[in-house]
Design brief:
heterodimer; A: about 375 residues; mainly alpha; two-stranded antiparallel sheet; 14 helices; 2 strands; about 65% helix; B: about 260 residues; Alpha-Beta Plaits; 3-stranded antiparallel sheet; elongated; binds iron/sulfur cluster
Amino acid sequence: MSSATLYSVSYFLVNYVLTHIGSVLPAPLNAWITNGDLVTGLAVLVFGAILLGASMINTIVLIWWERKLLGRFMDRRGAMHVGYAGLLQNFADGFKLFRKNTFRPREADWLGFFSGPTAYLVTSFVIFGILPISSGWNSGVLPLSLLLALAIFSFAPLFIFVSAWSSNNKYSLMGGMRSAAQMIAYEVPLLLAVVAVVIVSGSFDLTTIVYEQQNYWFWGPLFLALVVFVAGMLAEMERIPFDLPEAEAELVEGWNTEYGGMLFAFFMLADYLRALVGSILVVLLFLGGWTMPTWVPSAATSFPLAGIFWFMVKTYLVFGLFVWIRASLPRVRTDQLLRVGWNRMIPLSLCAVFLAAALVLAKCVWPFGCLPSMGV
Amino acid sequence: MSDPVTATEKSSDNPILWVAKPMVTAARQFAKSLVRPSTVIYPYERLEDPKFRDQVRIESGKPIGVGPIWDNYRGVHALNIATCISCNLCAFSCPDLCIEMVTVPGGDPKHPKKCPQIDYGKCSYCGFCSDACPEGCLTMTTRYELSVTKRSEMVYSPQKMFGIYEQKLPMHPIRVERPANEDQILLEPPLCIGCNACARDCPTQCITMLDIPKPEAKAGEKVPKRIWKEPVVNDSDCVRCGTCINVCPKECLFWGNRK
Ligand code: SF4
Ligand code: SF4
Ligand code: SF4
């Protein structure tokens, strides 16, 4: 695991390039170009660009991963022809959408129609600036990074509702209503499940939470919280079996019925970005993040970028679980969804909170072991 | 708990099973498809490859139909022009009216030889024509790649189908067994004038004109003016094409059952 943070890498890159450009320029320009503020500013931009590119590529590969897995679940092969095993198919699809004309229904509200998808995509991107992918990923301590990530994550219903309402289409509006109802209903158990993790780890900082899992990963003792969290995430990501907001059989395409071309691609990308964030959160909170158990041979965890490697492996496996659920279960009805949310998930998550409290009191639980002493 | 929906749900399966069962099913399907999914990667793999020959099976473990499934495939027709007897039965039986009988070289000038020409823009690959063909010369092959750039190229002439026949693709000549008491060609003797038209046009040459005795003239009656012959149909050779009925000028031949 490297000690360089992503920011320090980008700072080094910018500094290196600017010093070399400056060395061939005359003195006043040289001084202006290598000045500290410019380097810092550019380094922040490069940092953002790297994150943007990485999350974009991961999102698109995630779509490929889903298509391949879903194909196998359905006795097919999934994308096959473009690139190795269809790996480039989704890049081609994205490029096609990018070239398409962007249009707006005549009666649709201009501002809401265009700002909705944009804000939806941007807020989904912003979360990536907070999530630690590996040790030393973030430059400093973010004491409330978990809360911040979840807060940004829960912006989505607002933007979905804005774009649904401003599309001026009854299906969009119904999809938006459903989306809002569903997301608000599942926000509560989701956060309560997170509370269980916070109680055990004693911190809202994602990096600390990961290090608190050095003795055992939280999925074992906090299995109840994991179940609630995954169910809540499924509802938040609007994936089958909780994809009521865009139930194709009833609502055409739900709240993005009126969107085409690049704006549709925004929604699609943001959906998978949120799926990626959801999988990453499951890995961070319950599966030990980038750390591996001690019985894993050290050769497997000490090569360069091993942390990122194992983190991505876990993330894709968790997303595979989501795909597995999607391939197995039918869509639930709205009343079932809300009843399960309010009547089952909230009591279950409260139980998980009490279990977590008991775990903290007991300190050591067979067969998992003890909590590390650095917490609380 | 007066909600009927809740009541029925309560009586149904355990909710854990409700989630677990389909997930186990999906996982089993996933594991199976890792070995080999059902998909045939068409341009690279083809169903006619021997390795697929015995793969498609029905539940009991036996291939569908007789032999490998591929033998029952209904693709483009093959026509053996040499054995076609121009009986027209294929065109009769076609539900889509896509068969037209066109002249091919080889017949005598008085009775040109006609063979089927099929418009694949209309054909539904029902296979009725090859079922009906009494000579087994119109069969269906395993060829399925038919895309063309012009509508007119969809019409396959007899010669083109003969070309397919000569490729010796897997074919299945289906000869449908005659029902035991099928209708036969019967004659209404008083109407017949012995004109020989039926015997001349019968594609299987199964009609023979036999002499009949010329009756003695009775008082006050004239002997009808006609040729004193009558057709006799060799029923085992007759393919039931109906040509004789169609060409008879006096409409004295008809379908009937003597048995
Ligand atoms: S297969 Fe059926 S539709 Fe096609 S030519 Fe023969 S009888 Fe007509
Ligand atoms: S049914 Fe057979 S023999 Fe008769 S015309 Fe058609 S192809 Fe020829
Ligand atoms: S139906 Fe008439 S023409 Fe046709 S084969 Fe029989 S006897 Fe000959």
